[in-house]
Amino acid sequence: MSLRLAVVGAHLSGLPLNHQLTDLGAKLLQSARTAPVYRMYDLGPKPALIRQQKDAEGFEIELEVWEVPLDKVGCFLRCAHGWALAARARRPSPCSACRRGQRRLPRKCVARSQ
């Protein structure tokens, strides 16, 4: 079993922290970009990828999707201390409730924020 994680910044292939993924046996699945609604912010030793408010300018940010063995996810989060996991927001796709035409959208639905 494994967990797919999207990473940005220094965890990308060829950058200084990528070994934290490869040392755990993680496998690169694909390179992608976020939806154009994010900015990277300097918060000291670690940058933050933050979704912008609806009217604010955002950018497509380069990311990679890695498949991390489930029993190694905790190790990765410990060595990448200070990082947070968040809901993905690549190019939006409707959730199952949207596809079924439900009027009340789930809290996590990407269509809710558009």
Strand order of the largest sheet: 1-5-2
Low-confidence stretches: 87-114
- The CATH homologous superfamily is called Gamma-glutamyl cyclotransferase-like
Number of helical stretches of at least 4 residues: 3
What is the CATH domain class? Alpha Beta
Could you tell me the strand content as a percent range?
25-35%
CATH architecture assignment: Roll
Portion of residues in helices? 10-25%
Overall pLDDT confidence: 76
Identify the overall geometry.
globular
Structural class: alpha+beta
Give me the count of strands. Answer: 5
Radius of gyration: 16 Å
What do you see in this structure?
With 114 residues, this protein is of the alpha+beta class. The protein has a single domain (2-113), classed as Gamma-glutamyl cyclotransferase-like (Hypothetical upf0131 protein ytfp). The protein has helices at 19-22, 73-79, 96-99, and strands at 2-7, 27-33, 38-42, 47-51, 62-69. The strands form two sheets. A three-stranded antiparallel sheet has the order 1-5-2, with no helix packed on it. A hairpin with a 4-residue loop joins strand 3 (38-42) and strand 4. The termini are far apart.
Structure in a nutshell:
This protein has 114 residues and is an alpha+beta fold. The chain is built from 3 helices and 5 strands, in the order E-H-E-E-E-E-H-H.
Task: Give the SSE layout.
Elements: E1 2-7, H1 19-22, E2 27-33, E3 38-42, E4 47-51, E5 62-69, H2 73-79, H3 96-99
Antiparallel strand pairs: 1-5, 2-5, 3-4
